[in-house]
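4.2 Preliminary Data

To establish feasibility before requesting continued support, the project team ran the inverse folding procedure on a target of 332 residues. The structure was first converted into the token representation described in Section 3, and no sequence information of any kind was made available to the design step. The complete token record follows.
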């Protein structure tokens, strides 16, 4: 049979696309709607042929529902993703600082294509609900992909690494020399992506913010550091680093008010050592000693105190003393 138009043999595909994009439970399409849409595309069709096409799509696996509330209409019922799942994906994309604003908008539009245009418009409105700061480095989206590939292929990578200056310009670390790192894992911490790998120059496990990495390329070398990573508890490692600000590891004793039990268990896990007293408890935790750790403790005021070891207590005294000196009255 000769096609009646150049689009005629694509009728089934256009019909399915129309149902996916234009219908949902609240917006069924009548047979008149369907015929009018196909006619706009230059595709002539009769009701009988549409009935056959709808049945063929059902046989293929499409969940096409016929409703009879006011008049007969058709819509796509069950989809790969439920609307609530798409909303969660949109929220995750919008909340992620490591994804640029431009890339967030592109991803949300693509997520919206998984449902009808009516429901997609509701997803788009969520973009303006949480006005989170977004990363300006467009390349991070592709950096993550490159690093995943290198991890899969078990090959080392090299890149340059930068830091921000007060002028809002960046400066390359190591005077622009390449970092050569064997990638072992990617971690999403505090809404930033980090590469955890074996640094070939430093001969140790290190972590790097992916959005500060430039010019990532595979070296062709098989990755190193397998012995170190075989001994590493990745979940414990990321928990200890406190937002990836590293330092020397130590077992620290924290004196905490009883109401803080949930905070300690959420942060360090249910296996943390706790000694209960009457009005407080002592928790022995393994942490990386860093300014971020001290700031975290300081944020709880009198409800949390470092009681040991003395070397860590002394570092806390130094840090709080330096902070206090900044705010001493300069009068007199």
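Position-by-position output of the design step:
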């Amino acid at each position: 049979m000769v096609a009646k138009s150049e689009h005629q043999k694509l009728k089934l595909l256009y019909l399915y696309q129309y149902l996916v994009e234009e219908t949902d439970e609240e917006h069924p399409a009548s047979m008149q709607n369907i015929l009018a849409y196909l006619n706009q595309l230059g595709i002539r069709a009769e009701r009988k042929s549409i009935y056959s096409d709808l049945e063929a799509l059902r046989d293929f696996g499409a969940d096409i529902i016929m409703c009879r509330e006011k008049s007969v209409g058709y819509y796509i019922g069950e989809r790969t993703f439920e609307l609530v799942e798409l909303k969660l994906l949109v929220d995750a994309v919008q909340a992620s600082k490591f994804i640029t604003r431009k890339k967030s908008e592109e991803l949300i539009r693509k997520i919206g294509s998984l449902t009808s245009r009516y429901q997609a418009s509701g997803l788009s409105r969520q973009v303006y609900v949480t006005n989170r700061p977004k990363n300006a480095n467009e390349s991070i989206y592709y950096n993550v992909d490159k690093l995943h590939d290198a991890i899969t292929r078990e090959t080392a990578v090299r890149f340059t690494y930068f830091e921000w200056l007060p002028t809002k310009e960046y400066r390359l670390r190591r005077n622009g020399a390449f970092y050569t790192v064997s990638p072992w894992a990617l971690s999403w911490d505090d809404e930033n992506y980090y590469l955890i790998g074996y640094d070939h120059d430093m001969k140790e496990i290190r972590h790097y913010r992916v959005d500060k990495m430039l010019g990532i390329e595979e070296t062709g070398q098989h990755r190193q550091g397998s012995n170190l990573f075989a001994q590493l508890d990745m979940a414990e490692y990321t928990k200890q680093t406190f937002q990836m600000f590293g330092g020397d590891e130590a077992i620290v004793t924290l004196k905490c008010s009883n109401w803080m039990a949930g905070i300690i268990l959420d942060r360090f896990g249910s296996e943390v050592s706790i000694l209960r007293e009457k009005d407080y408890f002592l928790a022995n935790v393994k942490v990386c000693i860093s300014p971020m750790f001290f700031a975290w403790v300081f944020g709880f005021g009198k409800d949390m105190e470092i009681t040991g070891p003395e070397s860590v207590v002394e570092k806390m005294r130094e840090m709080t003393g330096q902070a206090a000196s900044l705010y001493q009255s300069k009068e007199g």
